[in-house]
Amino acid sequence: MGAIGYKKSQTGTFPEGRVGGIMSEYLQGDRMIWLVVVLLFLVSMLAVYSSTGTLAYKMQVGNERYLMKQIAMAMAGLVLMFVTHLIDYKYYSRIAQLLWVLSIPLLIYTMVSGSRLNDASRWITLPVVGLTFQTSDLAKLALIMFLARQLSIKQDQITDFKEAFLPILLPIVLTALLIAPENLSTAMILFFTSVYVMFLGRIAMKHIMMLIGVAIVAFSFFMLLLFVLPESALSHVPRAQTWRHRIADFSQEVGGKRNHHTEEYQTEQAKIAIAKGGILKLNPGGSDQKNFLPHPYSDFIYAIIIEEYGLVGGAFMVCLYLFFLYRCIRIVKAAPKAFGALLAVGLGTALVIQAMINMAVAVNLVPVTGVTLPLVSMGGSSVIFTSIAFGIILSVSRNIEQEENVVLA
Fold first, then answer.
1. pTM for the complete prediction?
2. What is the pLDDT of residues 282-325, one digit of tens each?
3. What SS3 string covers the chain?
């Protein structure tokens, strides 16, 4: 792969200026991605501080508590990003094996004995420290890393169904099936990201089309059962009624009076927030709909951003994530090894798809999903694992600088 979009340098670092030298020494890799991360965290501080007013009132604490918590998570994320970007990305090939094998029993344990919130069992509580984290966040990161490893190893047999396609497909299906019962949206994002990475990894197109066809048929059959079976039968399937109501609300099939517990109510309040934002606005902390949206600091934080900063603020967020994806593509073009290229594009694509789906939910383009806005929504494990993903991408770009003697232009 050629070093497209890179600039040759004799030293592999920025030679001019003391600040530039310090940045090159300590914050290596794609500097534009570092800038995107800082901007996302700054937006997060403003949005979380504004949107947690009602939550703080309910918990009888000050807004500053949640702001300080988010700042602490951002600092922890930056530290993890810094550490992971210093590790040679080739080591992540071995780490991927360990993480993926570890994620499977953790997902099973979460389904059986995980902590429940909003009718979903997605969290496990770590003993002694008492901290909780979503095992699907770990599984998503582990699977993409493992997939990049398997694809790079099997390049010599990449078109063979038995030797390459099946061994690569089985971990994807297993992980997605374990995540789906409690977090269907994350499972779908992970599945389609994996299919995209398989395409880039040169899996035979006929095998990919066959997989997509089977997935469409299976999903259609699932949707049919979801709406044909009576609600009494669905009560025995975790989250089935929630999925049914979300899809029905989105397609305007559920009538009757709106209330504070339906997804239809959430989307209506999000649309009100967006309408209040107008084209351009600069009103930090001035959101009214944060008092009505059930989760303005996580699932619907994008609506709060638009209400306080207008359509221009919303477009800025979209551009930030698309610019990040563009920088990942530049890294892929310059990566000399398949593993690094697939690692960067897989992790980058997963994060951007998640961001786009979160924003699409806020503007009512897709049904409510429950996925967060990466590095912006208030969170714990999501911020940590997203930061690690950013750090791994930066590790790939840092390695390119050192081995290929180039810096990002």
1. 0.86
2. 888 888 888 888 888 888 899 999 999 999 999 999 999 999 99
3. CCCCCEEECCCCCCCCCHHHHHHHHHCCCCHHHHHHHHHHHHHHHHHHHHHCHHHHHHHCCCHHHHHHHHHHHHHHHHHHHHHHHHCCHHHHHHHHHHHHHHHHHHHHHHHHHCEEECCEEEEEECCCCCCEEEHHHHHHHHHHHHHHHHHHHCHHHCCCHHHHHHHHHHHHHHHHHHHCCCCHHHHHHHHHHHHHHHHHCCCCHHHHHHHHHHHHHHHHHHHHHHHHCCHHHHCCCCCHHHHHHHHHHHCCCCCCCCCCCCHHHHHHHHHHHHHHHCCCCCCCCCCCHHHCCCCCCCCCHHHHHHHHHHHHHHHHHHHHHHHHHHHHHHHHHHCCCHHHHHHHHHHHHHHHHHHHHHHHHHCCCCCCCCCCCCCCCCCCHHHHHHHHHHHHHHHHHHHHHHHHCEEEC
